[in-house]
């Protein structure tokens, strides 16, 4: 649980930063051009930006170090692109099988780490499958959301190769599945909303006739 809490805390901080970077110029633009505000869409879009900022902070943000040198008293900041534990896996389901059925004595608390990795890959991209079709009508088909999901997560894995992180085809599989789960939730919510509207219209029509 401490690992999950650490990741969520880190995501939350970057989400706030991303929301601030997006929100301030957006407010200025709306006031300057006196744009009509659709509050529901603005709220959903802001939540999406916050989520995306947190997501990218955990997927394509390279490790970095900063502080003040104890000798020179100068501020230092650098990115670390070297990782001896980074690797590439192009064999489908290899990593998933290892996480589920093997142990690693060289890694402390391997069970918790492997479970967290699988859970994160299945849950981290789920909101994208909800936000994307909610904000853009063209992404409300299974084909379009599948192409978006595969393209998006493949791009992330490609970038990770160059920033000292592991690239794994199983991450693409799990992340894409996560997006499809989110999309399924969106479709269920959409179906429920449509049925509610249909029932409301039928009730209003019956009331008008009476």
TrEMBL record:
VanZ-like domain: residues covered: 48-189
Annotated InterPro entries: Teicoplanin_resist-assoc (IPR053150), VanZ-like (IPR006976)
Transmembrane segments: 12-30, 42-61, 118-137, 144-163, 169-189
UniProt keywords, alphabetically: Membrane, Transmembrane, Transmembrane helix
Membrane recorded as keyword: yes
Name the UniProt record assigns to this protein: VanZ-like domain-containing protein
